Amino acid sequence: MADAKPLYETYSRSPIVFERGHGVWLETPAGERYLDFAGGIAVTSLGHTHPHLVEALKSQADKLWHLSNLQEIPDQTRLAERLTEATFADKVFFTNSGAEALECAIKTARRHFYVNGQPQRYRIITIEGAFHGRTLATIAAGGQAKYLEGFGPKVEGFDQVPFGDHEAIKAAINDETAAILVEPVQGEGGIRPLPKECLRGLRDLCDEHGILLILDEVQSGVGRTGMLFAHEWAGITPDIMAVAKGIGGGFPFGACLATAEAADGMTLGTHGTTYGGNPLAMAVGNAVLDVVLEDSFLTHVNDVTLVLRQGLASLKDRYPDLIEDIRGIGLLTGIKCAKSNADLVTAMRNEHLLAVPAGDNVVRLLPPLIVSVEEVREALHRIEAALEMLSPKSS
Ligand SMILES: *Cc1c(COP(=O)(O)O)cnc(C)c1O
Q1: Mutation test of ligand 1: which of 188, 229, 273, 362 has the most ligand atoms closer than 8 Å to its C-beta?
Q2: CA 320 from chain center: how many Å?
Q3: Binding positions for N(2)-acetyl-L-ornithine (predicted)?
């Protein structure tokens, strides 16, 4: 027993252990309460132990947990109907995670051209700073050296261009290009929104060249930005979209959505999953949609966003040597730090407020979408206290 640690040491974990959660709050075994603006990385969209989700999960647990996709799963069909009703999509494939939703999106794009007599079109253009998951194909799509190193030959077929360089994207399209894949708001990369004009420009470019637009809305989707999906802010629709995180509210599942035309190659036997779309996941997924599709839900997200943004803007004015910029859309908010983002996350944690570091020296604030105005104000007080601790004035 040279090494007694049983887990792969791939994560740097916070020392705090939580035992229970309710709404926007987490509690340690000793009863210490933390305000959760990490949201399990944009996953707990409806907060912890939301009564409607608990009820859906428990009642499904008493009936039936799992069926393979060799059976009809009525709740899977129902959730797909509701998702297609609410979006651009005609077709849905359910997965267990975000990376698998992206894998399905990539396969869907390649198969589309394969069955339409252009098998040479398989390449996908992606953007520097992107994050699409940790499978072999999605680390190739993300193109980040730190995630690719040591994992053998990079999966072929991804061409990366700089962020915000429309001309570079144009120049990268050739007769092997199948699609352009982007996050409407780069999450992991540092909460960098793609400007609306840019998204519209990409849509036009795809139409012009007869290629597909794939959006990765794993982090930005399901109400997080104040629209059901972030691309709605730009008034465009993709051909294919990957979704996960918030769609399960904490139950692990994802989905790939597509137009009927884009999905025309995904015929019998071309793709599959054992767990994807099983009854437990679908019970929770339908319950999440019940809440997110309520009339006032997105209004609430936009209302609390306003309070958060105003508070952060004022903190930026008061601590210019610590905060360089505030960015993002809705409750996908980033504080671009002038000093170390890790130090700010730690200082916030000392004030019992959880947040997530991101690339580009950013601290991400990803609270449950049900966060109240009072809770946002409480978080702002705690951020202020953390900034004060880090401020040169106070040392
Ligand atoms: C988290 C994330 C993924 C990967 O999702 P997993 O469930 O971790 O596989 C992909 N794309 C984006 C934009 C993400 O934020």
Answers
A1: 188
A2: 29
A3: 134, 273
